[in-house]
Amino acid sequence: GEDVEQSLFLSVREGDSSVINCTYTDSSSTYLYWYKQEPGAGLQLLTYIFSNMDMKQDQRLTVLLNKKDKHLSLRIADTQTGDSAIYFCAESLTGANNLFFGTGTRLTVIP
Amino acid sequence: DTAVSQTPKYLVTQMGNDKSIKCEQNLGHDTMYWYKQDSKKFLKIMFSYNNKELIINETVPNRFSPKSPDKAHLNLHINSLELGDSAVYFCASSQSTSGSLNNEQFFGPGTRLTVL
Q1: Do the chains contact at B98 and A96, CB–CB below 8 Å?
Q2: What share of chain B in percent tops pLDDT 70?
């Protein structure tokens, strides 16, 4: 299987920026995704980036992709307590249906 | 309207039993999936299925079998449940089929299975 790695925990203060990092091993990824999982809930797609892009911005979210280093990051500006959740990066590969998920990063926002 | 729904939300059962989890999507998608999320929150694909092919993660025991009565449903049947099967199972669907680019998947709310 594919290896998609993330740090398990991140704590930030309300109003600060959060940066969640993800590394992957397969260079044939086509799209890379960020999903959010709130406690007791399913996964919600936050944003995605095509593998030939370097950056994508969507309101408070900025996705950076370094394809050479196989590194993906999600920056959340002005982090709010409602952003507390587990964030999963995922990649889809050419010719494959399913997504390969990272280990998830639990973001805790301290008021 | 719920896009991807699963029933039941919670399932508690004894070891050795056989159980099913149902999944339905009303998005008109071609492909459906089952994922397993263990107690450490690791999320792994179990199956992907469209009306042409079933792709099975080779690590999934053959006690697990997906059953699709029609394009909008992919149920998960589990035989002879074991303690290690306790997890949250997520169903998902997408429009794409193999080889397509954007594989945005929509997830159900999950079914928490507890095997005693």
Answers
A1: yes
A2: 91
